[in-house]
Structure formats: C-alpha cells, structure tokens
Design a protein that fits this description.
The chain is mostly helical. The chain has one domain. The chain is built from seven helices and no strands. Helix 2 packs across helix 4 and helix 2 runs antiparallel to helix 5. It starts with 12 loop residues before the first helix and ends in an 11-residue tail after the last helix.
Amino acid sequence: MTREKSEFGKGLVICLVKFAQHRTQHNADSFGIFDKWIKQNPENRKLMLSPSPPDNLNYGFPHMQRLKHFVEIADKIYEGDYEKYLSKEIETFMNGASDHLYEIEVPKDKRWDKVRKMVEKLRKKALHMGHGFEEKKKWTLKDVEDLFELINKISVEIDKNLGLKAEIGQHS
C-alpha cells in the first residue's frame, strides 16, 4: 500500500522552510519598497519612478521595475488606492505561502508546548491573511514582517529543544 504524498509538505521544519521560501520566490521583499514609496511625499515618489532615481531612493533595477509595475496596476485597477493594492498583493502572497502550513506538525511532547503555541499563531494568521479574503481589511508590510519574525522565534525554540545554543543574529 502506497501512502499518498503531501501536496504542500508535512512536518515542522520543512513546512516552515517552504513557507519562508515564498518570501523571495514571489518578490515579497518588493513589498517593502512599494511600502516605502507609498510613505514618500509626491516629489520623492516621482523621483523614485524616474529613469535615474537618486541613490537614497534607488533600490536596484529589479526592485525598481517591480515598483513601477505595482504603481501602474494600482493606478489602473485600484484607482490609486496604493494601500489596498499592497494588501491584495500580500493576500496573494500569503495564499501561496500559507498552503505549506496546512499539515505543519509539532511533536506532542510537553517541552514543545511553546513551539506549538507559536506555530498555531503563525498558522492561523497566515491562513487568515491568505485565505480569509476580507474585503475591508488592509494587510500591511508589518503584518508580513510579524510573521517572519515569528518564524525566527520558532526556529530558535526548535534549536533550543534540540539542545543547541540558538541565536538569530544581526542580519535577519
């Protein structure tokens, strides 16, 4: 008898890794540049979209191309409601990433209780963001950052439970 293979992964670490891989696969880091653009004054917004933005407003060619794409779509479809467009992009990102949390498992042992609580918090929020489809809710970059910070904390606790001296590090 062959066991049916999991569609999105099963386990603890593999599900966390697969969720986190979506951050770069789907250019989630570009959300940060779009968020920075939204918070700029009109003059700086215009400079950021120019062919040669000043160094302090230039985040590299791929990100700047993605920013221009975001702005064009937000203007066309969302009539300049940039926060709403960012929220929809976050929702789409979470829709794909959160699929990897359906079969996430944490060992039943009592010493894993802290990890279990954090994983459940991650799972609930990520699935809600990706599959809740709340028309009035606007997801923000902070919502995404909070989930990835939670993954860092979960990872440290996993290492501690394995007897390792874990440390997130400066560049996380």
